[in-house]
UniProtKB/TrEMBL annotation:
Highest taxon, organism lineage: Bacteria
Name of this chain's protein: Bifunctional NAD(P)H-hydrate repair enzyme
A GO term for molecular function: ADP-dependent NAD(P)H-hydrate dehydratase activity
Record keyword Metal-binding present: yes
Gene label: nnrD
GO biological process: metabolite repair; nicotinamide nucleotide metabolic process
């Protein structure tokens, strides 16, 4: 079982927050104080010498958190300037603003004001959090352009930007950000640090999130018991969403996303025979097309498949002599040969695609899918699939599709179009849970919470996560939508997110073939499709991290042993983050 860090949608976060407040054990004001304290604490941890801070406070509770940050930095002897809005915020934010007013003034939140005065050491962005309801316009849009933009010399206007919960204006469910006013560029200046509350949200990990958030710290604000206590527990919901790489810190002692499979480094001692570790069959293409499949096959062996066989057509077989000697070779010319091969039930994982050719893939897939072996479909196999609805219908739950965006668009054009479509921000409204008409619209997820119900009046922006989940449900197989942000979704709605923005050199010819081989090897070893795809993604990126720039795909398979050793070590020693006190 792979186990990562749970990721919550903003709707789930609000439901948990509401449940906590409804319990009477914690007030909104206390949560806001804790949120502000977490941010101020992180600022002081990074920049222990008191300096100048500018805190930008928006109209809602995110702004309320900002007033707390301002007060606590002031108490720590920082020189604090607050820019705020002249509105009537909710009671908690209003109270925090009042407390700040006892200490200092509030200048208007305008671009002109932001530009004026001495430059600050730290800028705190508490303009919008989860409550953005429409694209920012007018003065607010100008401010965001200033906060997230650069000057003519390319330098960021706000060096050391700390975002409260998220960079403002950004959709935490989709990782999308609205366009800035014409002529004001795009969101291209990342925060140095983002402090999110309780759990990461999808947008922190996909889309623009990893680039815009900078370092991500997820702070404990004392909601854990409500997160875990709900009927069935969030952890047991079928549509669990997890992050599988700890590029962020979690401050409440929860497990962070280390890999998590006790079985990863161990081979079964109960069944020490090579067949106990599975047999992966990698289908290769015709003459001069076999390199990709050889990469996959070598990787399948390195990740621990007991046996791996490469299967080109007869006329390409001689090309596959040579290293590695551990690899077996077998000619498979067409569907009949493959059916014959699959009479051996010990062949328990198949890998189609890399260099296999579209027609050959179609022929072989038609023979293989009814045998219901665990199967990876990549590259040409995905193109073959997109040409033939019958093949698509023959997919089964032990299949893993590994498309990049282009392949995904060929397979699921309507979902790809939705991803490109207009992007309304999320808007949530609390409604009467007693109204059966309204209740009927709520998702089953939300109905689990014994608290105020939440209604989406506009959906959050349709994201890569939504698209991958819908694709998986539609085709009944695991869909791994590749990219620097990879989403891996299973037909039951479970999904895993992985960010690899830090290894741009992984975008190199053949890297996808290695990933396909890795997943095939893990499937051969008996990992469930979602886990095999997730672990494959994780180890793939980690091998590239270990090598650094200059990597070519041929380097990857032989880096796997070191990564496996490292993962085992991290699992035994430091898989639990240190808890920081909430004071
Ligand atoms: N997760 C937790 O447990 C806690 C979170 N906290 C913080 O609270 C925010 C969410 O607060 P909320 O008040 O719901 O939302 P925001 O602060 O992001 O903003 C809402 C206000 O912004 C106005 N708005 C929305 N869009 C625009 C726009 N484009 N232009 C101008 N104004 C906009 C909105 O006005 P409406 O007219 O739409 O109502 C609201 O006034 C969360 O992110 C955390 O930071 C708690 O402090 C602790 C617990
Ligand atoms: K913010």
């Amino acid at each position: 079982m792979l186990e990562g860090t749970e990721v919550l949608t903003t709707a789930q976060m609000r439901a948990i927050e509401s449940a906590a407040m409804a319990s009477g054990q914690v007030t909104g004001l206390e949560l806001m104080e804790r949120a502000g304290r977490a941010v101020a604490g992180q600022i002081r941890l990074r920049w222990p010498k008191a300096g100048r801070a500018t805190v930008l406070c928006g109209p809602g509770n995110n702004g309320g958190d900002g007033y707390v940050v301002a007060r606590l930095l002031h108490r720590a002897e920082w020189r604090v300037r607050v820019l705020g809005m002249d509105n009537t915020p909710g009671p908690d934010a209003g109270e925090m603003r009042r407390r700040w007013r006892e200490i200092g003034g509030i200048a208007p939140l305008t671009e002109q004001e932001l530009q004026s005065g001495t430059e600050s050491d730290v800028y705190v962005d508490a303009i919008f959090g989860t409550g953005l309801t429409r694209p920012p316009e007018g003065e607010i849009a100008n401010i965001l352009a200033r906060v997230f933009g650069r000057g003519g010399d390319g330098a960021y206007y706000c060096r050391r930007l700390v975002a409260v919960d998220c960079p403002s204006g950004f959709c935490m469910d989709s990782g999308k950000a609205p366009a800035l006013p014409p002529g004001r560029g795009t969101f291209d200046s990342p925060a140095r640090l983002t402090v999110a509350f309780d759990s990461p949200k999808p947008g922190h990990l996909i889309g623009l999130g990893p680039a815009l958030c900078g370092e991500l710290v997820v702070a404990d604000i004392g909601l854990r018991q409500w997160r875990e206590r709900h009927p069935g527990g969030l952890g047991q919901r079928p549509a669990r969403l997890e992050a599988i790489w700890p590029r962020f810190d979690i401050r409440d002692g929860r497990r962070i996303g280390v890999p998590l499979s006790d079985r990863l480094g161990k081979h079964s001692s109960a069944s020490p025979h090579k067949y106990g570790h599975g047999h992966a069959l990698i289908l290769a293409g015709g003459p001069a097309k076999g390199g990709a499949a050889r990469l996959s096959a070598r990787t399948a062996l390195r990740i621990g498949a007991g046996l791996a066989t490469i299967a080109p057509p007869q006329d390409a077989l001689p090309e596959h002599a040579g290293q590695p000697d551990a690899l077996m070779r077998r000619a498979i010319d067409g569907g009949g040969d493959l059916r014959e091969a699959l009479a051996d039930s010990r062949i328990n994982a198949l890998c189609f695609g890399p260099g296999c050719g579209i027609d050959r893939s179609a022929d072989l897939l038609a023979a293989a899918l009814p045998a219901r072996r665990a199967t990876v479909l990549d590259a040409d196999a995905l193109t073959a699939l997109s040409h033939d609805p019958a093949l698509m219908a023959a997919l089964h739950r032990d299949c893993v599709l590994t498309p990049h965006m282009g392949e995904f668009a060929r397979l699921f054009p309507d979902l790809a179009r939705q991803m490109e479509g207009p992007k309304p921000p999320a808007r949530l409204r609390h409604v009467d849970a007693g109204d059966p008409g309204r209740l009927a619209q709520f998702s089953a997820d939300m109905a689990r919470y014994n608290c105020e119900m939440i209604e989406w009046t506009q959906g959050p922006a349709y994201s890569k996560l939504d698209a991958a989940r819908e694709a998986a449900a539609r085709c009944g197989a695991v869909v791994l939508l590749k990219g620097p942000d990879t989403v891996i979704a299973a037909p039951d709605g479970s999904a895993r997110l992985h960010s690899a923005f830090d290894v741009p050199w992984l975008a190199t010819a053949g890297a996808g073939d290695v990933l396909a081989g890795m997943i095939a090897g893990l499937l051969a070893r008996g990992f469930q499709p979602l886990d095999a795809a997730s672990l494959g993604t994780l180890i793939h990126a980690q091998t590239a991290r270990g090598f650094g720039p200059g990597l070519i795909a041929d380097d990857l398979p032989d880096l796997i042993p070191a990564v496996l050793r490292g993962l085992q070590k991290s699992q035994s020693s430091s898989s639990v983050a240190t808890a920081l006190p909430m004071t």
